[in-house]
Amino acid sequence: MLYYPQLATGSLSQFPVDRTMQLRTITNQMLGGDNIRASDTGAGAVRWQLQYQGLTDAEWESIDQLFEAVEGKLGTFTFLDPTDNLLLWSEEWAQKAWSPDPLIAMGTGVQDPFGDSNAMQITNNAQTTQRVMQATAGPSWFQYCFSVFLRSDAPCVVQLVVSTTGQDWTSPVNVGPNWTRMAAGTSLSEIQDGVSFGIQLPAGFRIYAFGAQAEAQRGAGPYKKTTDLAGVYSNARFDSDSLSRTTNAPNQNSTVVRLMSSLS
User: What's the alpha-carbon Rg for the chain, to the nearest Å?
Assistant: First the structure.
């Protein structure tokens, strides 16, 4: 599978990043003069303009090699949107995108860190550790940061988990009575298509969770709520049949890359 490459810094882009969402509504006018409007979901698209300065020769070549491999605008690849959360349903862990272990019980309507009622109550009813995880279509070897707001009635240690086939990575965090955004970053050594993010609870404990977020970078950015659309685009493509660079100095290159993807 082909992926848009990360830079040596662990990010996919530099500032500024331009992102444009395109939506279309179809309107039918009836004989009586009434209008019926419906969203044309198949026409939705998102476009990015990525501007780079100071790229090393290796970084430029990784972008250029992908461009050649997909033959410009013709072929597709997976792009991890640097402006978005890679996880679906960041506040609704009862959705099918999330996979709780069998003895995990979840409840909704808990007061969240911002005073609304969008947090989850998560209870481990098992005699051993249990997890709540979400799988994404990102490459396992990228640099990632996983973050989530957590609190608990009784102090406990929760593991933040990044996982792929053949490798689990965990980071322990101390959870107390106050909402705290926990974050941890890693790069897995296994080379697999797909990576999962989630939390692991100790036996018999109950915690409260809100705002799960995964990003393809070293640190956590501002929280971005998601529902049924997140930042993993598996049918992205270049939005131009030409790609050029300017060499400003030895091992220093600049370029502008335009990408697009459908929303369906």
Answer: 21
